[in-house]
User: Which sequence fits this backbone?
């Protein structure tokens, strides 16, 4: 859509003055994005992210929960038998926290904002 100069000036007189004088009338004091824009940027970090077995184990509170996760993903064919056995060995020898710190509710939202 094209707008002639006169119509543009009637619709946006202050903007026209600013464009013509090349002197900004409104200063920019901040580069902080709006909360909606910030939320969008935050969520992009984990766009298309698919958690793996270790991500799920890090959500566990106990070794029994971790075993359930490993068994379930092995049964579904999402991890190999060999990898499942390696995870079980690590779990038995070093414990559930050897896979990483406990990931509490909201972990991904907090981490994506860094």
Assistant:
């Amino acid at each position: 859509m094209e707008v002639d100069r006169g119509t543009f000036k009637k619709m946006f007189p202050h903007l026209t003055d600013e464009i013509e004088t090349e002197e900004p009338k409104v200063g920019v004091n901040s580069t902080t994005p709006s909360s909606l824009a910030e939320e969008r940027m935050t969520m992009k970090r984990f766009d298309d992210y698919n958690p793996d077995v270790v991500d799920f184990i890090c959500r566990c509170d106990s070794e029994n929960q971790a075993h359930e996760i490993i068994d379930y993903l092995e049964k579904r064919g999402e991890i190999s038998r060999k990898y499942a056995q390696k995870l079980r060995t690590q779990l038995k020898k070093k414990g559930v926290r050897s896979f990483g710190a406990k990931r509490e509710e909201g972990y991904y939202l907090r981490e994506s904002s860094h």
User: Anything to note?
Assistant: The chain has a mean pLDDT of 79. The two ends are 41 Å apart (CA to CA).
